[in-house]
Design a protein that fits this description.
By secondary structure, the chain is of the alpha+beta class. It has helices at residues 11-27, 39-44, 68-75; strands at residues 2-6, 32-36, 52-55, 58-62.
Length: 76
């Protein structure tokens, strides 16, 4: 599973990265976590507000930080 955090490194982006890692560990899935900080790369996903959560190439959330439990559900 490929998890991408879209954002420039703001506190919300860091929180989202931590929550996504917790969720992946709780779900027991193998994953790679990538932080996408380049604005042009972020815009290629159609995301205009950060942070964004992308799982396996699909944008799951934009502009908010879901809980690890919510992210875990998105992974299934």
């Amino acid at each position: 599973m490929k998890i991408q955090i879209l954002g420039t490194g703001c506190p919300k982006c860091k929180k989202l990265a931590e929550a996504a890692e917790q969720a992946a560990k709780a779900a027991g899935v193998e994953y790679t976590l990538e932080k996408v900080t380049d604005i042009n790369e972020i815009m290629k996903f159609g995301v205009m507000m950060t942070p964004g959560l992308v799982i396996d190439g699909e944008v799951k959330t934009v502009g908010k930080v879901p809980t690890p439990a919510e992210i875990e559900k998105m992974m299934k």
